[in-house]
Amino acid sequence: MRLWIDADACPNMIKEIVFRAAERLHLELTLVANQPMRLPPSPYIRFEQVPPGFDVADRRIVELMSAGDLVVTADIPLAAAVIEKGGTALNPRGELYTKENVRERLSLRNFMDELRVGGVNTGGPPALGARDRQAFANSLDAVLTRLMRAVR
Predict the structure, then answer these.
(1) Which of 42, 58, 63, 140 could serve as a FRET partner for 119 with CA atoms 20 to 30 Å apart?
(2) pLDDT tens digits for 116-129?
(3) How far is CA 77 from the centre of its chain?
(4) Rounded to the nearest 5 degrees, what angle is found at the Cα of 47, between the Cα atoms of 98 and 124?
């Protein structure tokens, strides 16, 4: 099992939680982004830079990941592709994507896109707070425990 972060838009506080989990559990973690970023020194953490472009990092993650891997992303189409490939997807607010809820979220996302194209200001998600950080940490621990049991 490997960990992946869709790192271009992932908040630093979430990356730090995943860094600590990778170290603690000795899991390989790869961050994929189109901009360089600093990483803590670790034999478990690596970075892959992809060229700029729409969904380039997402496509690279799906290409490299395997069934049983965990991907941290807020990108719903990426989460859908991860699930389709047999992986697990977790968003930075600690919400686990499933086959059931990812379809619903894709529909809502597409509807909101249509509204924005029509000139409606739909706003964005609220900033991450302490509760979100704790929810993510708790969900990450639960998901990693479940996935590691499945591997053994």
Answers:
(1) 58
(2) 667 767 666 677 88
(3) 11
(4) 50
